Amino acid sequence: MKRNIFIISVMLFVVSIVKMNAQNITSISETNSEYKINFTLPSYKINEVNIFEEYGINQNYSKIELPEFGEINKIGLPILPQYSVKLRIPDDATTFNVYVSNIVTQTIYLQNKILPFNDFFETDTVKKFVLDQVFYSSNGQSLSSNYNLSNPFTIMGVKGINFSILPFKYNPITKTIQVIKSCTYTITHNGNSTLKSGTNSIVSEDDITQEFLKNIFTNYSPSQLKSGISGIQNVKYLIIAHKDLWGGIQQFASYKRNLGYDVTLVSTWETGTEKYGIRNYIKSKYDNKDTRPVFVLLVGGPDHIEHFGWYDDNLDLQDNGDSEHPATDLDFTLLDGDDFYPDILIGRFFVDENDDLKGITRRLMYSETHLDELGENALLISGGPEDYFEENLTEIEDEIVLPNGYATDHFCEICNDSRTEVLNAIASDKYNFFIYRGHGGNGWLSGFNLSAFEFDPYKEGDNDMFGPMGFGFTCWTNTYEKRYGSFSCFGRRYLKVKGISYFGSSTISQSYSNNKLSKDVIKSVLNSTYLAQGTVSGVNNYHGGYTTTLQERQIRKYNLLGDPSFEVNGLGCRSNYNLVYSQTFEDKDIVKFKAINDIVIAGKGENFEVNSGAQLTLLAGNQITFKEGTIIKYGSVLNAYIQLCGGSLKSGENSLNELSQDSDSVIKDKGIIDLDDVEINISPNPTSRKITISGINGDALVEVVDVKGSKCIQKRLQIL
């Protein structure tokens, strides 16, 4: 477990602290032709940093610490804070002008140069320190602007710009920084179209798109958001499965339909397996608002569905060349505009066999329908002899995970924690997610030397139903590359035997970039409803609209293996469930649906089957209706309760209790119960009732009897 450990990698001394009482950094107002941004600089620190421990150079530098801000990160140039806002703009706006007024400044004198930005591959044994001699010998004029305005970009049909405020102007010659304490920015544009509250004709109006855009653009006003399952009723979900995996993906598609998604399932017979053909197919759906997907799931590994980027088989893993064009699924999502902002939310099931698909689907269904009952627990792991891994992870824990209400267990290799403890922790059912920060390889987390193959014993064990969401900020753990004729990707193996999702890098990665990306992604995920919504928002925050070559590689190499629509906090209690689409729950499936009001089973001419070995729990506050097509097979367990969602069963409410051979209230089916032409409704009424359904082989009589012996329902049906 976590121990007290004192890490010294840089020497920090507070030189000066500037305090202000600003509650908000910016306030924004707009008209049809301009935006006004009032800016107030919050408190910041200027620390002294010695780089000897990191680079072997005994030199002090100054570093401005401002946690709420991002940073300019160009190799060799000073690390200067910047604060960015994304603004929705009219579709026809092409020209912009910026004016600065009401500016209040202060000059700060420094003892040392501002620390330049550097990044290094985490496999580097010698870290190179770069300082741009031309800039540091100048008066800083090349970085003198107090703002930056990006080119327009498009996200999900909405056009926007990224405006970055640069309140620190550094002059290396005089060793001073001019600080903007407050000012007003006015941005004008030539657009004529007015922005109305809600959406325009080309933007999807579903809740997920609207919520996503609202969280991206500071000035976006979504259309009225719905609640519960109605909020995803019109959300389009496109699943592209390799033809050999067609059978294995059917259950997952049915499950998502019954949650309310508008699912389109196609095979590579229709799309082809080549990456450009698949992207063109996705774009054809995206370009039509009526078919535009919010979520896209690719089903199959790189042998089934190509990825973008490539590997050079002649490169050794220690060669950094494969980072130039990392394997990525990002390009499948870049459908509108010349930018790196995804227009859809994508994930991949990296599988080779239908049995693997069934295992992933089983764990996803269990996790999503039970996660809200688990509690909020996080597992944090740092691996490697370097101190900076543990420093970064501790910052994530203290600044993000704990403030979001999660209890944490924290293991670190430099603390001499037991690898057996770490393995058992990942394989347990305790945690919502785990975060790994450290060294990584093709098939393992190098810290603690943990191979994903070590999870194999848990695949068929008692605790194989749930594996935490995984986030690995490290090298290679989501590689799409074959080594020695087979895939050894850690993320792939983790999903195959234990996990529900894994977000990681397809190639080698850099230290500073991983430190920054890890914070942005975890913060966004913990504040998002859907998994890919969080990972995409985090990556967007990381690059902030200005994409250097280094940033481009970083955002391409990180991919999500798993269901992009997975609900981070679980489904919880929905208003209603209409489970009317064909669905089959198989052996080992354990699923629970909880509704505030009603649950309806079957009724569209399709079967809803609970097969032997499956467990289905239904909890509704008002009524549960079983319609024609409901089939409960021998050896299955069905629990159905009329109960306040999240509460306990109370007097005056009815219970259709556990349906199993061993329960006090049972269906003794001895085979299949087929509720032909019968509809059973159980709903609250003034008297307490215990419902018993019993059957006899052959021509069976089903009776629903209350505790006083009164028959509520009497119906004959055939026991097959």
Task: Sum this structure up briefly.
This protein has 720 residues and is α/β, with parallel strands linked by helices.
What brief labels describe this structure?
single chain; alpha/beta; Rossmann fold; 3 domains
Please write out the topology.
Elements: E1 12-18, E2 26-30, E3 34-40, E4 44-50, H1 52-55, E5 60-65, E6 70-71, E7 81-88, E8 96-109, H2 133-136, E9 147-149, E10 153-155, E11 158-165, E12 168-171, E13 176-189, H3 207-216, E14 236-241, H4 246-259, E15 262-267, H5 268-271, H6 275-286, E16 295-299, E17 345-349, H7 354-370, E18 377-383, H8 387-401, E19 407-412, H9 419-427, E20 433-438, E21 444-445, E22 450-451, E23 469-473, E24 482-483, E25 486-487, H10 490-497, E26 501-505, H11 511-525, H12 531-543, H13 549-557, E27 558-562, E28 573-574, E29 577-579, E30 583-585, E31 590-595, E32 598-601, E33 608-610, E34 615-620, E35 623-626, E36 630-633, E37 637-642, E38 654-659, E39 672-674, E40 680-682, E41 689-691, E42 698-705, E43 711-719
Parallel strand pairs: 14-15, 14-16, 16-17, 18-19, 18-20, 20-23, 23-26, 28-31, 29-32, 30-33, 31-34, 32-35, 33-36, 34-37, 38-41
Antiparallel strand pairs: 1-4, 2-3, 3-13, 4-5, 6-7, 7-11, 8-13, 9-11, 10-11, 12-13, 21-22, 24-25, 26-27, 35-40, 36-39, 37-38, 42-43
Report on this structure.
It is a single chain. This protein has 720 residues and is α/β, with parallel strands linked by helices. The protein has 3 domains: 12-195, Immunoglobulin-like, CATH 2.60.40.3800; 235-562, 3-Layer(aba) Sandwich (Rossmann fold), CATH 3.40.50.1460; 573-719, no CATH class. A 6-stranded mixed beta sheet has the order 19-18-20-23-26-27, sandwiched between helices. It has a 6-stranded mixed beta sheet with strand order 28-31-34-37-38-41. Strands 2, 3, 8, 12 and 13 form a 5-stranded antiparallel beta sheet that branches. Strand 2 and strand 3 form a beta hairpin. Helix 4 packs parallel to helix 7 (354-370) and helix 11 crosses helix 12. The relative contact order is 0.09.
